[in-house]
Amino acid sequence: MTWLAIYLQDHHAAGVAGSRLARRVAASDESNQPAELSRVVEEIAEDLATLEDIMRELGTKPNGMKDAIARVAERFGRLKPNGRLLKRSPLSDVLELETLVAGITAKQALWVSLRSAKLLPIERLDQLIRRADDQRRVVESAREAAAQRAFGVPSD
User: Fold this and answer.
1) Three-state SS annotation for 40-80
2) Rounded to two decimals, what is the model's pTM?
3) What domains does the chain contain, in order, with CATH numbers?
4) Contacts 24+ apart (CB under 8 A), 40-49
5) 132 and 111 in contact (C-beta within 8 Å)?
6) Quick one: which of 29, 46, 33, 71 has its CA closest to 131?
7) Per-state percent for the chain, helix, strand, coil, to nearest 5
8) Per residue in 57-115, pLDDT tens?
9) Distances (CA, A) of 104 to 84, 138, 155
């Protein structure tokens, strides 16, 4: 197996967990931008499908074991202590949105790495890079709003 195949499989597993996290974050969103977050959730799912297409083009398949571990890790992530026992805490929103920002940043790094390797059309990857920038902007805005709600930071 090549380094590229392992790299793509690792990103695919992270994308599986990230897509699940994005759906949960959008479902619990209390920001004033539910339409934008819903769009990002759809795009994240599309990006995972795009990665699967790229993997097929490059002769690599997702690793079922890595994907399963990522799904389990995403579920265990829900069990973190959040200051409340039976219901969702505002801290959960902040931490999950931060995780989503990190995931989008990692996905963008994947697109940049593939662009640098010159294995795929640059225009296609540039579009994915720009889309990740937009996704990160939307999620970061939701994260800031969640932090204001959780920590009592006054709005500007």
Assistant:
1) HHHHHHHHHHHHHHHHHHCCCCCCHHHHHHHHHHHHHHCCC
2) 0.88
3) 3-151 (1.20.1260.10)
4) 40/135, 40/138, 40/139, 43/131, 43/135, 44/15, 44/18, 44/19, 44/104, 44/135, 45/19, 47/15, 47/107, 47/128, 47/131, 47/132, 48/12, 48/15, 48/16, 48/18, 48/19
5) yes
6) 46
7) 80, 0, 20
8) 999 999 999 999 999 988 877 666 665 656 777 888 899 999 999 999 999 999 999 99
9) 28, 11, 25
Return the structure tokens found at 32: 């004033």
Token couple for 13: 């597993």
C-alpha to C-alpha distances, 122 to 6, 101, 128, nearest whole angstrom: 22, 24, 10
Give the separation between CA 53 and CA 49, rounded to whole angstroms.
6
The three-state DSSP-derived secondary structure of 104-129 is: HHHHHHHHHHHHHHCCCCHHHHHHHH
Work out the number of other CB atoms within 10 angstroms of the CB of residue 35.
9
Helix (H) or strand (E) segment spanning residue 29: none
